[in-house]
Structure formats: C-alpha cells, structure tokens
Design goal:
single chain, 72% helix, 7 helices, mainly alpha
Length: 129
C-alpha cells in the first residue's frame, strides 16, 4: 500500500527546484559568457562555491539571497535571449555601454541594484510592441 507523506514530497520538490535553478544559472552564465568570478560576484558566493556549483556538488539554497539573485540572472538571460536571440549579440549587449542604464550591463549586474535595473530595463524593452 502506498502512503502519502507530505514532508517527504515537499523535501523532494525543494531538492528538484534547487537542482533546476542551479543548472539554469550555470547554463545562463555559460551562454552569456560570464566568468566564474563574475558569477560569484553576481550571486554573492565565493569562487570556490561556484566551482562546486558547476561540478554539481553545490545546489543553490532557497532560504538565502543567492536564490533571489539566481532567479534575477535567469530572468535577465531569458529576456535578453528573447530580444537578441543569439549568444554573440547577447554578449556584445552585456559588454557595451548602455546610455539608458548609464553603464555597461556586465558591470552593473555585480551589484544588487544594478542587476534589478538591468532586468527591469530588459523587461520593459521586451514588452514594447
């Protein structure tokens, strides 16, 4: 007879969410050409933790700020991908001076306020019809 254990199911769901977001962040960073050092600054983690993240030995923690930063980075990636549709253009956009943001997005995303501004900017640009 099968039994339903809500705690076990919730724990499994949390582990799956952690694995999915961790993998999404690593893929987004790779496609955007972000170095491990830059990703560490964006997420507020140590470079050693980022190395463990890439190797699968570390999963992002939903109870820490890294989770929110990771969600924002994936959102940035998805918005930028929908606008430019190729890696080279996305990387160029990130590295280029942007007068609307008063800086280079690649530099801005290392600070919380800058990451949020870049995400909002891309969301607004994507919504224009």
């Amino acid at each position: 007879m099968l039994t339903f254990d809500p705690e076990t199911q919730a724990s499994a769901g949390t582990s799956l969410s952690r694995a999915v977001l961790t993998k999404a962040v690593a893929r987004a960073a790779a496609q955007l050409g972000l170095s491990k050092g830059l990703l560490a600054r964006v997420l507020g983690l140590s470079p050693a933790t980022i190395t463990r993240l890439y190797s699968g030995d570390y999963l992002l923690d939903a109870s820490r700020k890294e989770w929110e930063f990771a969600l924002l980075l994936v959102r940035l990636f998805r918005s930028l991908d929908s606008i430019v549709a190729d890696e080279a253009s996305a990387r160029t956009w990130l590295a280029s001076e942007n007068s609307g943001l008063n800086g280079r997005p690649l530099e801005l995303i290392t600070q919380t306020e800058g990451l949020v501004r870049v995400v909002h900017y891309l969301d607004a640009s994507r919504a224009v019809v």
